Amino acid sequence: MRQILENRWFLLTVIALTWGSSFILIKKSLVVFTPYEIGAVRVGVAGLLMSAAGIPALLKMPKRTLFWVVVAGFFGNFFPLYLFPMAQTQVSSSLAGMPDSLVPVFVLAFGFLFFGERSRLSQIAGAVIGLLGAGSLIYFSESGGQGSQIGYALLIVLAAMSYGINALLIKEKVSGLSSIKLTAAVFTVWMIPSFVILYFTGFVQRFEATPEAVEALGYLGFLTVFGTAIAMLLYYKLIQNTTPVFASTVSYLLPIIAVLWGVADGEQFTIWYVVSGLMILAGIYLIQDEKPDNRPPKSYRPVGSRTVKTA
Question: Given a cut of 90, is residue 197 above it in pLDDT?
């Protein structure tokens, strides 16, 4: 079992299935709940479930490490989880999963701009091919569905940028933390503001146990446990075991899963979905980084009042 959890392709597949299914679950949850309620419940409840491990990890964490954990958590565990339901108030679940495939492009761009990381020509080509595949999915899905909602689709592009920054911060700044401690810590930190937001939405005061509300709550509960807490834990593990570029290629698979759920929910399917999907898979093949990262992970230990970084 341990060997399976260390296999990058297994992790990539599981994350793609859970996150790719998140869009249809958000759609079902929006029938009853607001975008702010959905985001707050996902972060708040995930933090509550993981606080037993998160609180001790935070208390033992050096201040510098804690700073980067908070920043990484904002970009990867807090901000995007509000953007997706906001966008899906106006765009379909299929379309919502498509701009998310921009994450590897932002990882390559931000990695070069902020960390001086250089990409191979094949990785750049893979990013472009995968982006074209995602773009074609957007184009052909809109031809038979809702009208263009560019402004709301841009919210998902913003979320993709946020995930790109998060992936780089996890690898460059807090790679010394185990994936369990890291996931528990970031959700525990951002649990508090999420519950504050949830209180001001009137979620508890307004909730009525109607059949429709209970069904939506079931979708939201599944989304919170599997699509948020567990999937994020596996994603951080994938980043630490491989590279931010490879881990971010999971976003190329999300449109495929999102479209399949959309078809199951009654949305139109065309042969162009297959063509676009093959382009996305070709992008993943090219963008994967087969060069092992032999650098030892960074760790931090406090010495007196100072924090010393050790290799």
Answer: yes
- The pLDDT tens digits of the residues spanning 39-51 come to 999 999 999 999 9
176-210 burial by CB neighbour count: b if 16+ within 10 A, else e?
bbebebbbbbbbbbbbeebbebbeebebeeeeeee
Q: Could you tell me the residue ranges of all domains in the chain? A: 2-310
Q: Angle CA(187)–CA(167)–CA(148) in degrees, nearest 5?
A: 90
The whole-angstrom separation of Cα 124 and Cα 39 is 33
Q: What is the pLDDT of residue 289?
A: 53
Packed helices 271-287 and 250-264: angle between N→C axes, nearest 10 degrees: 160
pLDDT, tens digit, 9 for 90 and up, residues 279-310: 877 877 787 655 544 444 444 444 444 444 43
For residue 34, the 8-state DSSP code is: -
CA nearest to 187, candidates 154, 142, 228, 133: 228
